[in-house]
From TrEMBL, chain A:
Keywords: ATP-binding, Hydrolase, Nucleotide-binding, Transport. It comes from the Bacteria. This is Sulfonate transport system ATP-binding protein. PANTHER family: ALIPHATIC SULFONATES IMPORT ATP-BINDING PROTEIN SSUB, TAURINE IMPORT ATP-BINDING PROTEIN-RELATED.
Automatic annotation (TrEMBL), chain B:
GO terms for cellular component: plasma membrane. The chain crosses the membrane at residues 39-58, 95-115, 127-146, 152-171, 192-222, 242-262. Belongs to the binding-protein-dependent transport system permease family. Pfam families: BPD_transp_1 (PF00528). It is a multi-pass membrane protein. The keyword Transport applies. This is Sulfonate transport system permease protein. Keywords: Cell membrane, Membrane, Transmembrane, Transmembrane helix, Transport. Coiled coil: none annotated. The keyword Transmembrane helix applies. GO terms for biological process: alkanesulfonate transmembrane transport. Its main location: membrane. CDD domains: TM_PBP2.
Amino acid sequence: MTTSNVLQVSSLSKTFEKPQGKVHVLADLNFQVEPGEFITIIGPSGCGKSTLLKIIAGLDVHYQGSVTLGHAKIDKPGRRQGFIFQEHRLFPWLTVEKNIAADLSLKDPEVRAKVDALISTVRLQGFENAYPRELSGGMSQRVAIARALLRNPEILLLDEPFGALDAFTRNHLQNVLLDIWQQNKTTMILVTHDIDESIYLANRVLIMDAKPGRISRIVPVDLPYPRKRSSSGFQAIRQKVMQEFEQVEHMRRVER
Amino acid sequence: MENTEKMIRTAHGSERVLAPRAGKLGKGGGKWKATVRGLFLPVLIVGIWQMVGSLGFVSPTLLPTPLEIAEAFVQLTLSGELLAHLKISVVRASIGFLLGGGLGLLFGLLVGFFNKAEQSLDPTFQMIKTIPHLAVLPLFILWFGFGELSKILLIAKGAFFPIYLNTFLGIRGVDSRLFEVARVLEFSRLQLITKLIVPAALPNILLGVRLSLGIAWLGLVVAELMGSSEGIGYMITDARQFSQTAIVFVGIIIFAVVGKITDSFVRFLENRLLKWRDNYKGEGTMA
């Protein structure tokens, strides 16, 4: 599923009109994501990282600047951009396999085969006919991932997908996601507030700053997969990211 | 009073057969236990009722004993009268319900989907809703005569509103976060309706169906009491004129039982169609 479609974000800004005046949610963002990259976006709450993700998804079209995937401008949601929400958002009246198929029919042998393959990819064999209420949070999120993958997205956008899960489940799902990424070469953009998660997954970490939301630094992570959180290389990059955060904090205090 | 029909049957001893099994059957036993628990009060009331009647405290014209009612029931059944009346009543209620309920569902969907439809239709429906059956009945008779049409329309009028209101409510209550999912998955307009809105609104729609069925029966009583020559309602009016109180009771019981059966049918549908729901089912339920 590799395509030569680059995601290009150019002078992207977004402002809210509020009674107190204009609020800059995003101010002049510029970056580019190559196909097959794994980007994580990290930053303090209110830095507009989720807004940025929704703009790339086409769910939010009220912005200035340009966001293009390949040569096409992103102006509405679509199957090229898969989206995973923080909550699983499964259809409660559909079983696991029907949730994955969603609008497609399982009677179609092609869909059937793909759904079966995805169920084994996200390790949910035996739960094909379970309803969402019978699943744990981690399992539900895996169904949501399978649902997005069925549409062969060129880019998969994940908005703090593991934020509500316990540490053990989170680690497990991070590995599931890495497996999928290495198998399918889908471009991944994942928003998180967990520094370790951002380094564990990404080949580039995008650090954002709040008010106005902008990219303060992009940290490349040149560590081989699978990564070890305890390794010195990992810790060195962690140090770098922490320093960046401290600097941002410091600057903000000085400005006040 | 509603369960008198059942009470009579169990009073003949079937309950005694069920009771000892209850303890041994495990899950099924729990069900029987619940049934026995539900029957306890009705059986007690019927017992006292029979005693009071047999001892001659109350005149049979005012309150016939359960045994007399049972006797009237058997006679009416054997003569075929009861079945004939019941048939015509069921047909009327069904046609009225299908007409009113169908339109209720249709307009509920329409008004739920489109704001413009809501603005132009809903106020009128709300006005019509508040008019009681008895107030429009003379008009219906004047316009449509004493025949079947006025009866069916009266039933339809009653059946329309619960489905209409609940369908509307159900559609407006769909989780907006799921709409975002539907946008990401590129659902077509039709898929949005069939794959998201209708399934999400189904609990409300079925509740509307249940309420509508109940009201269809009430409308039937009003329609048949006002003037007809067949049907359970007619049977009741006719018996009252000849002071055959036992037959009046049989009619009332039939209304109650058929009402309960239709309600149980919709509940059965609910259990089948809504098994995905994970709601509070009350304290002390079994599995």
